[in-house]
From TrEMBL:
Taxonomic lineage of the native organism: Bacteria, Bacillati, Actinomycetota, Actinomycetes, Kitasatosporales
Protein name: Molybdopterin-guanine dinucleotide biosynthesis protein A
Naturally occurring in which organism (per UniProt): Streptomyces clavifer
Residue ranges constituting the DUF6457 domain according to the UniProt record: 195-282
UniProt KW GTP-binding keyword: yes
CDD domains (UniProt xref): MobA
SUPFAM superfamilies: Nucleotide-diphospho-sugar transferases
Pfam (any one): DUF6457
Amino acid sequence: MTAYDAIVLAGGAAKRLGGADKPGLRVGGRSLLDRVLAVCADAGTTVVVGGRRPTVRPVLWTREAPEGGGPLAALGAGVRHTTAESVLVLSADLPFLGQATVRSLLTAAGTGAHEGALCRDPDGRDQPLVAVYRGEPLRRELALLATEHGSLAGLPLRLLTAELDLAPVAADPLASFDCDTWEDIAAARARIREHGTVLDEWITAVKNELGIELDVDTDVLLDLARDAAHGVARPAAPLTTFLVGYAAAMASSGKSPEAAAEAVAEAARKATALALRWEEETETDRGPGTP
């Protein structure tokens, strides 16, 4: 992964949301800002431009001058606190942005003679607030614009992007979905509760809430819960998975996340085998033909 810094723009008046604190609005139990911060957790420095608010991980806070001066002024304020060759720039209202898109942008920005890369949405529109910029040309053009106009306040982002050679990246169609209205918020909340995505969303939310960086095979745990519920008793399912987690934590204390994931898999394997043996004994004791 390319070393990079991140700037998250979390200001703005949110007029179409009636002045609500948009970055603090929750989708899937997590604030929009925290969801964005999760996809750039490996940034060297993360700068959030906007009013201070609680976040799940520490960030560097700053404000544009004057406050409410617009995204270009906010970007200018944020870039002063970055030093990396690549700068990831995101708005704080992207509920479906994933790490895969961030990786694609970093890769595209770091190859060839491009001065950065930006997400291109399914309608063919470029998204300058879902982008990676090379640090030197970004700082150069911001300084030139500030000199030419006397200030970055109120200037449109297109003045910046027009001067940079940015590679378009066709990412996940939902990567650039942003929440400008209450209808957008409702749509995002409904989407993450769909059958095909709700479990992954919930597991991600729990891991972020608990500060866990652990990739495990959830199918293994679900199979364990099923076998415990079916072969022993329904309440055995949550209790068994809890004990598996506890055993894995004890076995992997002080070890790498990979070792922790392997400890979960091994504990789940043992507990599953036990549940199947338990069920086998029960079936044997009932005898053939017993209802």
